[in-house]
Amino acid sequence: MNTDWLDRIAWNADGLAPAIAQEAGSGDVLMLAWMSRESLALTLASREAVYWSRSRQALWRKGETSGHVQQVQDIRLDCDGDAILLTVVQTGHTPGIACHTGRHSCFFSQLQTAPEGPTWVSVTPVLKTP
After folding, report:
1. What is the CA radius of gyration of the chain?
2. How far apart (Å, rounded) are the C-alpha atoms in residues 52 and 99?
3. Is residue 46 part of a domain?
4. CA 9, CA 13: separation in Å to the nearest integer?
């Protein structure tokens, strides 16, 4: 298979690029993860999101333990070639759970101002206890 398309990506010094998973139906940003050349090629081949786990230093098939698989509908690259956008259908639970905390999205902490100063507040519920 021709892999020239992978050369368009500006991989960082670790051979990774950030990948944003966006829900196809709602447009919600679900999560940010990292992809390697291999994980992106596997994602294209399987149409299921495969990321690179920096903590485990291994490929990570989204949903391999939780069952919350991301079926990839579209793959895009930003104008600088240094960020990947996956449009996905999050499966395994309704509504879909993308976050390891059991929430729909990993972006559940909102910065709010208070008299004592800014603070992070969880603004979305846990849908399923992890």
Report:
1. 16
2. 16
3. yes
4. 12
As beta bridge partners, residue 71 has 48, 89
> 68 and 91 in contact (C-beta within 8 Å)?
yes
Q: Taken in order 71, 59, 77, 5, is the CA torsion positive or negative? A: negative
Identify the residue whose tokens are 């996905």. Answer: 88
What letter would DSSP give residue 108?
Answer: -
| pLDDT score recorded for residue 1 | 66
Within-domain flag for 120:
no
**Distance from C-alpha of 73 to C-alpha of 79, rounded to nearest angstrom:** 20
How many Å from the N-terminal Cα to the C-terminal Cα in the chain?
38
Report yes or no on 126 lying in a domain: no
CB neighbourhood size of 96 (10 A): 21
Using CA atoms, how far apart are residues 6 and 40, in angstroms rounded to an integer?
A: 8
Planar angle of CA 69, 71, 74, nearest 5 degrees: 145
Parent domain of 38:
4-96
pLDDT tens-digit map of 49-104: 999 999 999 999 999 988 899 999 999 999 999 999 999 999 987 778 999 999 99
